[in-house]
Amino acid sequence: MKLLLVLLFTFGLSTACLAEVTIQVNDQAGQPLEDAVVELISSQPGSGKAVHAEVRQQDLTFVPFVSAVVRGTKVEFPNMDKTRHHVYSFSPAKEFELKLYVGKPEAPVLFDKAGIVALGCNIHDYMQAYIYVGTSPHLAVTGKNGLVTLAVPAGEYQLVLWHPWQNADWQPQKVTLSAGQIYQSSLAITHQQKPQKPKKGFGAYTGS
């Protein structure tokens, strides 16, 4: 089943010459869609402040399913389960491996290259998650309400949209952020079920 994401952009000027950008992402049925990444890349890029982020292993799944971080961010991978996990990625944007462990690894993982990082677990094949590593500090992931709100300086930007289920690369759109304007765009995806804890009796390996 293909769904069409409809994005509604509303802009209003706030203090310090910032444009507040509210983006609503819906599916073809008009229902809010979560886990879509929105990035606004300035025509005059500056250095974004890298912060720490976290992807948990909880209830035999990765939480959150989709994360968005700026390049240079260090990400923690705490294991909240009693079951040991073996986290890895073979993605060109970041190859790493955290062998069987519980609790918190000794050091976070540095994501220093822009791109999409697909996460997996060597013990539980169904466990999947994604980290979108952007070049701009102006990026966010839609929640269950399909909304993101960003405060950015008024000006020209490249709007980038990404979702794990998209059917093809989405071409960036040039937008000029100012007050009182509305923009719409769309992204075709094939709807899938997010990874979830399997039925009882599977995935109980604890390691040693």
TrEMBL record:
Keywords on record: Signal
Domain of life the protein comes from: Bacteria
Leader sequence segment: 1-19
InterPro entries assigned to the protein according to its UniProt record, in alphabetical order: Cupredoxin, MauL
CDD domains linked to this entry: MauL (cd04221)
SUPFAM superfamilies: Cupredoxins (SSF49503)
Keyword Signal: yes
Family matches, as PROSITE patterns: PROKAR_LIPOPROTEIN (PS51257)
The protein, known as: Methylamine utilization protein
Record organism: Rheinheimera marina
